[in-house]
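non-specific serine/threonine protein kinase
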Amino acid sequence: MSCKKLKLSSNGKAVSWSLLTANGSPCNWTGITRDGDKKVAKIDLLDYNLGGHLPRICEGGSLIRFTAWDNHFTGSIPISLRECKSIEKIWLQNNQLTRNLSEGFGVYPSLSNIDISYNRFYGELSSDWGDCQNLTMLKFEKNNITGRIPPHIGQLTQLRILDLSSIRLQGEIPSEVGKLSMLYNLNLNDNKLSGPVPQELGQLSNLELLDLSANNLNGPIPEKIEECTKLMSLKLNRNNLNGSIPFHVGNLGNHGTILNLSQNRFTGEIPTQLGKLSKLENLNLSHNMFSGFIPSSFKELISLSSIDVSYNDLEGHLPNNRAFLNASPKAFIVNKGLCGEAQSLQPCNSTATSHGNRKKGRKYLVIIILSAL
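Structure:
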C-alpha cells in the first residue's frame, strides 16, 4: 500500500514541493490528510509561500479536497486533476497557474466549490460546467477566459456564488441565469458583455449582490429588478444603459446599501421613490443626463455617507442631508444650477426651489386659474 508524502525544500523566494511515493510510510505531513486506506484524501496548502509546478494528484481516485491558494505555483495544472471524479473542493486562487479550461478540468459530479481566480487559465467556458450540478460556488475572476456564458449554466440550481468578473467574456447574458434561484452573489463585472440586462434576473429572489459594471450592456433597467427584494448592492455603472430609473428601484429599501448607476446614458428625473432606500450608504448617479431637481425625499436617506451626482443636468436646492453637506465639491460639478449649503455651491436665493414639487405646483395653479375663467 502506497501513500503520498509532502517534501518541502527552500527555493529562495518561495518553497518548492513535490509529492513522492513512500511505500508503507505514514503521511503525517502538514497539509496532507489520509483516508482509512492511507490514500491522500485532502491536500491543504493554503498560504504556505510554496512555488514550483503542481505534481500529479488524485492517482488513487480518493482526493476530495485540493486547496493551494495564495502561493506561487506556476505552469500547467496536472492533467490527472481532470479525471479526479471524487473531488469536492478545488481552491487554487492567487497563483500563476495555467492551462486551457477544457483540457484541465472535467465533469465532477461531487464538486461543490471551485475557485481558480487570479491565475492565467485560458480558453472558453464549456457547457460541461452545467453538468457539475452540486456546485454552490464558481469563481473564475481575473483569468484569460474568452467566449460566451453558456446557457447550460442555468442547470446549476444549487449555485450561490457566480463570479466571472475581469475575464474576457462577450455576447449577451443568457436568460437561463434567471434559473439560479439559490444565487446570492452574481458578479460579471469588467467583461465585454452586450445586449440588455435580462428581465429574468428578477427571478433571483435570494440575490444580494449584483455587479454588471464595466461592460457594453444597453437598454433600460428591467422593472422586474424590484422582485430581488434582498438586493443589497446594485452596480450597473460603466455601461451604455439608457432610459429612466424605474421607480420600482425604491422598493429595494429594506436592504439596499449600494446603488451605482454612473457612466451610463440615463435620462429624465431622479425618482422620489429612491428616498425610500433607508439603508442606502453609497449612491452614485454621476456622468448621466439626469435633469430636474434632486428629490426632497433624499433627506430621509439617513444612512447615506457617499453621494455623487456630478456631470448631469440637475438644478435646485440640495437636500438637507449629512452626505450632501459633507460631500466633496467634485460630487456636484457640471450641472445646470445646483445650490445649497455644501462646499463650493452658491446659496439658494428666494426663487430657488428646495424640491421638485414647486415647479409642478405652478402647472396645477395655471390649470385652476384657466378653469375659473
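The two ends are 104 Å apart (CA to CA).
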